[in-house]
Design a protein that fits this description.
By secondary structure, the chain is mainly alpha-helical. It contains 4 helices and no strands.
Length: 121
């Protein structure tokens, strides 16, 4: 788990990872219109450069936060590999939260105890 300064790095990583996945989605929708539905390439012209910029920001972010977040090289390489398939940066971010490799504001994707989601009083 990370706290303090590492928490700031975790928030930054999560933000860029989710933005990268969203930009991938926009580019895929643009490609759907360009190549399948209408031969209209406006979506690719808009989301191509946006995705390219966020992709580069993601790679740089991974390299900058790996130290403060104490990621091993296998985790770092998995983070970099996650940038290639569509939406995998988001899935990777969820895995990091679930496994406790990043923690943002004390919130985790999986409760630490069964009583957290219990309706029994």
């Amino acid at each position: 788990m990370t706290t303090g300064v590492g928490n700031r790095h975790a928030v930054w990583f999560r933000t860029v990872a989710i933005a990268e996945a969203i930009s991938w989605t926009g580019l895929l929708i643009g490609m759907l219109f360009k190549y399948v539905l209408s031969d209209n390439e406006i979506g690719v012209k808009i989301f191509g450069p946006i995705h390219g910029g966020i992709f580069i920001a993601y790679v740089v972010t991974v390299l900058l936060v790996r130290g403060p977040l104490r990621w091993s090289w296998p985790v770092t390489l998995a983070a970099l590999a996650a940038s290639v398939p569509p939406l995998f940066t988001w899935f990777f971010e969820m895995w990091l939260v679930r496994t406790g490799r990043i923690d943002v504001g004390g919130r985790t994707a999986v409760p630490s105890t069964a009583s957290v989601n219990s309706t029994a009083a």
